[in-house]
Amino acid sequence: MSQQSLSRRAFVSAALAATITATHARAETARRIQVFKDPNCGCCGAWVDILKQAQFDVTVTLRTNSTLVQEKIKRGIPAQMASCHTADIDGYAIEGHVPVRDILRLLEEQPDAIGLAVPGMPFGSPGMGPESQREAYDVFLMRRDGTADVFSSYVDA
Question: What ranges do the domains of the chain cover?
Fold first, then answer.
């Protein structure tokens, strides 16, 4: 085996190891989520449990109704996108019962946006009852200019 092919192989191995390490570090950071919720809200607790089952590192901060509204305002969440809880992950706001797969997609795509929202509390969204009885709902990408686009849609069950 030539010195050149050994050097090339060592370089490729080192580059691959560095890529895996960087990807793992980003994944670890991106999985930390802080949730702001009312202490008496059971559906918010159910959503937190879903995040934990999906291996998110969840920190819950309890807020009264008025201070929870302030958390939403601070993040620029439009009133029409509001729901019962607010979360922060990797610089994005997550409002309401957003499915894990949409959060992961947001982190992968990294759009220039405030974050994601599921307005209201649609039945069958994560933490809001059985998915098998779900009503149709949309997950919205909240843009910094105040607009929102449908990020994903869930049909009724």
Answer: 1-30, 32-154
Q: Which fold has domain 32-154?
A: Glutaredoxin (3.40.30)
* pLDDT digit string, tens, across residues 7-19: 554 444 444 444 4
Any idea which residue has 């950071």 for tokens?
29
Q: How far apart are CA 118 and CA 71, in angstroms?
A: 16
Q: What are the E-state strand segments in the chain? A: 32-37, 57-62, 86-89, 92-96, 115-118, 137-142, 148-154
Its pTM stands at 0.80
List pLDDT tens digits, range 131-157.
899 999 999 999 999 999 999 999 998
